[in-house]
Amino acid sequence: MSGAVGTVPDWRTLVAHQQPEWPDRARLGEVVGELARCSPVVTSWECDALTSRLAKVAEGRAFLLQGGDCAERLDNVSSRAIRSKLRLLQQMSVILAAGSGLPVTTVGRIAGQYAKPRSSPTETVDGLTLPVYRGDAVNGTGFTRTERLPDPVRLRRVYDASKYTLDVLRTSGAEVFTSHEGLLLDYEEALTRPDRRSGRRYAGSGHLLWIGDRTRQLDGAHVAYFATIDNPIAVKLGPATTPEHALALIDRLDPDRRPGRLTFVVRMGAQRVRDLLPELVEKVTASGAPVTWVSDPMHGNTFTAPSGHKTRRFGDVLAEVAGFVEVHRALGTHPGGLHVELTGEDVTECVGGAVGLDDLHRSYESACDPRLNADQALELAVLVAEMLR
Ligand code: PEP
Ligand code: MN
């Protein structure tokens, strides 16, 4: 068991935000029991390897690229789609490495990114109110009672899809790690195993897990669960984050100050990053904590287009990264990485970029947030590479 286990309350005794209301708890128990007997999706030594890569990022000697779908879809898991995402991430990594002069560690939002936090538990259309879509791990996108009913059997399908995705990624030979939001704690706990040699606990569902901006409460179940695992972990920090909260997260999640253990993924919005980030970076740096800083220029820049589509402007995405890099340059700290939602498919979900995309109707496929398509993602990589020169 990790040294942290004794010092934090059991996550099961705390409030877990953003969990589904499973209609059949007995069935959930069965599925979770089954998962607890399955082999983990990733190994502890792979997780440790990512921690050492991220330690280099924290020291300013490497750059992190983290990207993939907002929400993976069980029906879209194919070797072709996986390879297309991987190819795009690798092309971006090559561009970023050339620009920064640093090795780039590539981490997909892939092989487990199936659960979504939502701003409201229900959705009403034409007078009918149904539970909101919470990711393919929980329910379906279709606006019917049956589709929206949380079904624990989906957790087993997510496990199988994640395993398959890892198998495809492993045959590519390239070094690529997996990550997802560690949202559904029953699923995560079922796949958490003590390492045979060290006895320390590892989440077996993915290499890096992150805590979302909505579930990073200090007294919440997510922070307590994450304190018990030894994987590299990240926390999303939105515009409401105070420096005191960031420092308290460090104390809870990285009490030993292990380089590579903790990444802060900042998503303040293009308008606010220059105002909000400096104090955060200054105070964390002054504390001596070896945190890895990454920019998520997507989640603070979402708006609804007149057509009703949730979208993001390419210019805003670029502007937030520029602000992030400028703040770090001014403070002499390392702008360590980029976290983006993207797909190798030719979708029309974000507006702008050199191709000048503005017809969101043509191919809007995301079940949740809008992703950069391959053209937009490569253009972003080129422009970010220039900033890092
Ligand atoms: C996400 O990464 O899809 C997400 C929900 O992000 P955040 O927690 O930053 O809102
Ligand atoms: Mn998202």
TrEMBL record:
Cofactor note: Binds 1 divalent cation per subunit. The enzyme is active with manganese, cobalt or cadmium ions.
Known EC number: 2.5.1.54
InterPro entries: Aldolase_TIM, DAHP_synth_2
Keyword Amino-acid biosynthesis in record: yes
Single annotated GO MF: 3-deoxy-7-phosphoheptulonate synthase activity
SUPFAM superfamilies: Aldolase
Binding positions (Mn(2+)): C70, H299, E341, D369
PANTHER family: PHOSPHO-2-DEHYDRO-3-DEOXYHEPTONATE ALDOLASE, PHOSPHO-2-DEHYDRO-3-DEOXYHEPTONATE ALDOLASE 1, 2
Family note: Belongs to the class-II DAHP synthase family.
Protein name: Phospho-2-dehydro-3-deoxyheptonate aldolase
Protein's organism: Lentzea guizhouensis
